[in-house]
Structures are given as structure tokens and as C-alpha cells.
Amino acid sequence: MDWSLILILLAMGAAGGFAAGLLGIGGGMVLVPFITMIYTAQHFPPEAVVHMAIATSLATIMFTSLSSVRAHHAHGAVVWPIVRMLTPGIVAGSWVGPWLGKQLNTTALALVFAAFVAFSATQMLSGKKPAGARELPQAPGMFAAGGAIGVVSGVVGAGGGFMSIPFMTWCNVKIHQAVATSAALGFPIALSGTLSNIWFGWDQPGLPPYSLGYIYLPALAVIAAASVLAAPLGARAAHRMPVQTLKRIFAFILYALAGYMLWKAFH
């Protein structure tokens, strides 16, 4: 990679890491469209571009999550019992997600990604308040919820916050706790999904050198380095700034990224 590409990847990693710390979303929804642009410009196989962008994005979340959750934990905001109850379903779902993604061609995968990013943005803007008596479900319900979060995250390459945060706030978990807990959930999502992307992409023909399954290692290294440094900054900002205002701004960014992926699906 030349220096201009490295600088672009560093900027992307910093933006994704800050977003991950700020909103507990793992940064994947920010990174995937931009990584797709870069891989397209590098003339990666068209049939594998979106798959590789999603896999690389998901792998970076392993590093971003660990960095982000340390900062959130220092504020006492991570609800670890929720993490323990959701993780088994998340691990199972995150393994299945990349397999489902492999069954989709680039057009279908880009459409799925655009739909879920737009859905996430709409959720952020809706501001709906949960019923006062609603609580988190028992273990079977938490396993099912974790499985759904894991499957979708594995398909679209995100840290799951676009589903786990609305789910937790719907069950009356405070927003700062939901953001912090979602950051912690990003690690099992990313670890299981990364191993799955390596496994299911191992025999994919035509991938560029230095690929590990669907993961492009040079991009992973650069993005992860920047995101690890930026994630704690986002986490600290999340505890100091009005989250609802930031969510509105971020929602419009997500709509723009969804629009790009929708365009990508048909070009």
C-alpha cells in the first residue's frame, strides 16, 4: 500500500473508533462503505469486494471493542450480567452470519447492508420511549435476542450496537449503560464473526495477496491501530456530551452511507 492509502485508512480507523466509543456501535457501519470504495479502487475481485469490506470491518471491532470498553468500564457503565446473558447467543449467531453473507452476491449483500444501516438511522431518530414496566427477558429470551443480534452483525460486519442498544433501551436499560454494554458485546460478535469469515472465505478463489479468508490483513492492521487510539476518546465524549443530539447527527451520516451502498448495489 502507498502512503496516501495508509493515511486514508488511518483516518477511517480513527473515525470508526471514535464512533464505536461514542455510540457503542462497533464502527462497522461507518467503515464498510468506505472500505468498499477503497477495495473497488484497488481493483479487488468485484464479486468479493463487499464480502471483504464486511469481513475486514468486523475484524477491526475486536480491537476497537477492547479499547472502548475499558474506557466505559472506568465510568462503571458496563452492565456485565447483560453481557454474560447475551454472549452465548451472540457467539452462535455471529458464526452463522458470515455463512449467510457468503450465500448472497455482492448486489444482495450491499442491499442488505443499506437496509439495516437505514433501519439503524431511523431507530436513532425515532426517540421512542419504552413502556415503564418492560424488563429484560429471562435466559431463553436473551439467548434468542443475542442470536438475532449476532446473525445480523455477522452479515453486515457491524458490532451489533444498532440492534443491541435499541433492544436494551426498549427494556429500560439507561442509554449510557446500553452504549457501554453494547461496546462490550462487540468483542464476542467480532471474534466469532472473524473466525467464521476466515473459515468460509478460505477457499474463495481470486482474493488478493495477504488475505486471510475474506479479511485483508494490511487494511486490518492500519485501521485497527487508529481505531484503538480513537475509541477511548469517543467513550469519554459519550459521558460528557448530549447523546441524543449526537445520535441525530450520526443518523444522517448513516443515511448517507446507506445511500452509497444502495448505489453500489446497482453499479
TrEMBL record:
The chain crosses the membrane at residues 6-36, 48-66, 78-97, 104-122, 142-167, 179-202, 214-233, 245-263. The keyword Membrane applies. It is found in: Cell membrane; Membrane. Keywords: Cell membrane, Membrane, Transmembrane, Transmembrane helix. GO terms for cellular component: plasma membrane. It comes from the Bacteria. Its main location: membrane. It is a multi-pass membrane protein. InterPro entries: TM_pro_TauE-like. Belongs to the 4-toluene sulfonate uptake permease (TSUP) (TC 2.A.102) family. PANTHER family: MEMBRANE TRANSPORTER PROTEIN HI_0806-RELATED. This is Probable membrane transporter protein. It comes from Massilia violaceinigra.
